[in-house]
Predict the 3D structure of the following.
Amino acid sequence: MIDKAALDNLAEEEKTQLKHSLEEIIERTYDLEKEYKLLQKSVLGFQELVRQLVESQPNPMWIVDKEHIETIFFQNSASKAYSNLIPLIDLSREIQEIECGQSILLVKLSTVEGDKTKRIISATDITEQKRSERLASMGRIAAHLAHEIRNPIGSISLMASTLLKRVDAKQKPLVEEIKSAIGRVERIIKSTLLFTKGVDIHKEPFPLSRLETEIHSAFENYGYTKEIRLETDFCDATVEGDFDLLGIVMQNFLYNSIDAIEESDEEEGVVSITATETPDGTLLTIKDSGVPIENENILYEPFKTTKTKGHGLGLALSLEIIKAHNGTIELLHETKGFKIYLPRD
């Protein structure tokens, strides 16, 4: 506060000078206030820019307290799907892989520059990468085992065929069951080797009736315990494709249908396979009266199956073969079954 007595004792020139000084101070104060507001606006704008940049990131990100990471200062929208990740993080490791629900995340921790009290946590979903690595590893092991098993199984199959010609009538059903079991192992080996080395198709025109005959032959040679009826209705048409590979596809769907009926509570069942022409190609429909599909999400996942029989490659291999023919496989929902569409070239 200015002393009034001291002010009264000032000369007029000193008073005028003091007045100018005060006016300059006031004006400078206004200027500082304007600069502060502009600076504040700039800081807020920068903060908003940073927020938008973080928000735009597809990967989950958090800014948390350095020592207590459960205290979250900021997180983007992508992080909300992984709300249970934070407690799983090991603070002693800057980079780590964490399984969170059905996902595998690569998590990185870093400190905030200029603020040692906060951490930045970022996570990248590497589930597909890990899945591919596991599949590649499983594929190599499966291919090795298939090669090792193929020769002794071939010898056993040959000896079983020889034995079938020599045993008496009472023993033949037992040998035929052995041959059927060996046939299943041979199919698994063939599917495994075909899946691991990749599908290479060789197209040629063939009548659908030939594929229908192949399906009936596969049905007669497949082992089952219930009364199962196979119904086929194929149009009189010609398809251009790889007959052997398409035969494997139809066998896989046929065997899956039979196994589904075997697992049902009914003592009998029906498998229906039809082939019809469309304006642009051929439509194959497979239906059965067996148990419903338990998990649609793993239908085409290699080495995964919900059946008591099977190795989890049938549908995965079938999908690869149909894709190689530029076709599609569709799961039916109104009734249990599948539609396979083969376009005309």
In short: The mean pLDDT is 82. DSSP finds seven helices and twelve strands in the chain.
